C-alpha cells in the first residue's frame, strides 16, 4: 500500500545579532510518499557562517533539535537523518531516508554568524 505523506516545510531565521542575514528553504511543501527520501534545502546569504542547525516541529509542539553542523564540517548524520553543508554555495541540505508517517513535521534551519561566537572561557 502506497501512502502519501503531507509535508509542511517552513523557514526560520534565528539571526542572533544582525537582521541582514536571509535564510530560505525549499521546497515549501513537497509531496512525499512513505519510504521515499526527503530532501530539504536551506540557503543563506552571509558567508561568515559559524554553524547551522536543523530543527523539527511536530504539530502543536515546540521545536526539537535535530543536528548542528559547523562551518568546518561537511556532513553530520543521526539515524536516518543526514545534513550536509556547502559553504561555497552557502547551502545546507537535510536528507531523511526512508520517510515514515512519524516524519510528518515542520523542518526548520537556523544560521549563526561567526562574529557571534560565544567567548571562550578557561576553567
From TrEMBL:
GO terms for cellular component: T cell receptor complex. The keyword Secreted does not apply. One of its GO terms (molecular function) is peptide antigen binding. One of its GO terms (biological process) is adaptive immune response. Residues 21-121 form the Ig-like domain. The keyword Signal applies. Keywords: Adaptive immunity, Immunity, Immunoglobulin domain, Receptor, Signal, T cell receptor. SUPFAM superfamilies: Immunoglobulin. It comes from the Eukaryota. This is Ig-like domain-containing protein. InterPro entries: Ig-like_dom, Ig-like_dom_sf, Ig-like_fold, Ig_sub, Ig_V-set, TCR_variable_domain. Pfam families: V-set. Residues 1-20 form the signal peptide.
Amino acid at each position: 500500500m502506497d501512502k502519501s505523506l503531507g509535508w509542511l516545510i517552513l523557514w526560520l531565521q534565528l539571526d542572533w545579532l544582525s537582521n541582514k542575514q536571509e535564510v530560505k528553504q525549499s521546497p515549501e511543501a513537497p509531496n512525499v510518499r512513505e519510504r521515499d527520501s526527503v530532501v530539504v534545502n536551506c540557503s543563506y546569504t552571509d558567508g561568515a557562517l559559524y554553524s547551522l542547525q536543523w530543527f523539527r516541529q511536530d504539530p502543536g509542539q515546540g521545536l526539537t533539535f535535530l543536528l548542528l553542523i559547523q562551518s568546518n564540517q561537511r556532513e553530520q548524520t543521526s539515524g536516518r537523518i543526514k545534513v550536509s553543508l556547502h559553504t561555497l554555495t552557502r547551502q545546507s541540505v537535510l536528507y531523511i531516508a526512508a520517510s515514515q508517517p512519524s516524519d510528518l513535521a515542520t523542518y526548520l534551519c537556523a544560521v549563526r554568524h561567526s562574529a557571534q561566537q560565544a567567548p571562550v572561557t578557561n576553567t
